[in-house]
Design brief:
16-stranded antiparallel β-barrel; Porin_dom_sf; 24 strands; Porin; about 450 residues; mainly beta; single chain; signal
């Protein structure tokens, strides 16, 4: 179990809660940490963090179409360079307790990422904004812009991430790009997919939706049961697209707690979750389902031989996005330079992730991850399988600040090799190196 730190435990718990996330990798109950402020938190608090980042993925230029580097070898969200540096996230947050029953949390995102990349341009926006009411025993009510119940990997606070790059599985299945439902998008009848220019996308939702959620947790000795159930709208507040399409999400989790509290907790936890949405496009309503299970073991943060293990599996049906294959260039056909959105209920995708970490010293942590994502196995001509081995090393200066580096061995399989262009993309995929500092203030 966790041991004492020179900084007081209450100070770090309050600081973590005011950040709107847990900066510590071993915070297991995200509903508690992100839903309410601690009882001793002040009525008004300001905090934030920045994440300067560096990326390098030169790309394999032996087999390229029209001498163009594919999107998979370009850095998001602009997809214009293969090596670059940016401020991935820069967030200012306000958080506190109005009284013992009402908490609030508002956060603005100013970094350069998929959330702030709207219609091909930079647009900072409100990424969190909700009130939590704790009047009803057994059902805390959260209303506003909420991180929806889903996979454990999507509910983590950013400073608990062990790698700069998110897993492909979570990135493609849960970080769904948003589209303006009123645009008359072109449909490719041969592919049974819409073609959407990247300049028209409204960015990603960062796992958040406007809505209302009931949640709570119940402790009995070492055991803790937690639930969260949400009704919301499948839309993006940041882009001003107030969609009326419904969203339903729920998660149940059970944990055995070895010791510690809040960000210092050591436990074994298992969860199951489900999301359903009815996104609209071209005056047609479609079905989007996501569901999965996850298990984690966390013990001994910032102590030698502290360790963690995570497993996640998820599956999606219906609305599946396939990112643009190449950056736009003269002579490339439209399907190569546009996102292909497969909205039919027959479409499927699935993936899993295994991740482990070990503190070699109090400050140095080594990490290993394998990520597998199988997109559109129901359509042999469009099936793509993404596999990534990631190795990482982190140096934790304090529980709130660290620097991490990772190398990503990436492959893209096209099982049925339908045409030379697919082969070109698959052969051109290269590895990537990324570094990032996470600095809280």
């Amino acid at each position: 179990m966790y041991h004492g730190h020179k900084i007081s435990r209450n100070t770090l718990i309050v600081a973590a809660a005011m950040l709107g996330l847990s900066p510590l990798a071993h915070a297991a109950n995200w509903f508690e940490l992100q839903g309410i402020s601690p009882a001793k938190a002040p009525i008004f608090g300001v905090s934030g963090f920045i994440e300067p980042s560096l990326y390098a993925q030169p790309g394999n230029e032996d087999s390229l179409e029209n001498n163009q580097i594919p999107h998979i070898d370009l850095i998001a969200p602009g997809f214009s360079q293969s090596t670059t540096a940016n401020i991935l996230r820069a967030r200012i947050m306000l958080r506190g307790n109005l009284n013992k029953h009402i908490s609030y949390f508002f956060g603005g995102e100013f970094g350069d990422n998929g959330f702030t990349h709207v219609r091909g341009g930079y647009q900072p926006g409100l990424i969190d904004g909700h009130f939590t009411f704790s009047y009803i025993p057994g059902a805390r009510i959260e209303a506003g812009l909420i991180r929806a119940p889903s996979a454990e990997g999507a509910m983590q606070g950013f400073m608990s991430y062990n790698f700069v790059l998110s897993s492909t599985m979570i990135g493609q299945l849960m970080q769904q790009p948003m589209y303006n439902s009123s645009n008359p998008y072109k449909i490719n009848t041969k592919l049974n997919a819409y073609l959407i220019n990247g300049q028209q996308t409204l960015g990603v939702n960062a796992f958040r939706y406007p809505g209302i959620m009931a949640f709570d947790w119940f402790r009995n000795g070492h055991w803790e049961f937690t639930y969260g159930a949400m009704i919301g709208m499948f839309g993006t507040v940041a882009a001003g697209n107030q969609s009326s399409s419904p969203l339903y999400a729920a998660r149940l989790q059970e944990a055995y707690i070895f010791g510690g509290k809040g960000p210092f907790r050591s436990d074994v936890q298992a969860g199951i979750w489900y999301q359903h949405a009815s996104p609209e496009l071209n005056d047609t309503s479609y079905s989007m389902n996501r569901y999965g299970v996850d298990v984690q073991y966390l013990q001994g943060y910032m102590h030698q031989w502290g360790r963690q293990f995570r497993f996640q599996y998820m599956r999606g049906t219906g609305w599946i996005s396939a990112a643009s294959a190449f950056s736009s260039a003269p002579g490339l056909a439209a399907p190569l330079t546009n996102t292909q959105l497969y909205p039919g209920s027959e479409n499927t995708a699935n993936g899993y992730m295994l991740e482990g970490g070990l503190f070699l010293t109090k400050h140095i942590e080594a990490n290993l991850r394998y990520d597998y994502y199988d997109r559109l196995p129901n359509d042999p001509a469009q099936q793509r399988i993404f596999k990534t081995w990631a190795i990482g090393l982190q140096y934790h200066f304090t529980p709130l600040t660290k620097i991490m580096a990772g190398y990503y061995f990436r492959t893209l399989d096209v099982p049925h090799q339908p045409n030379p262009v697919a082969n070109s993309i698959s052969d051109a995929v290269d590895n990537e190196f990324a570094m990032q500092a996470m600095i809280a203030f």
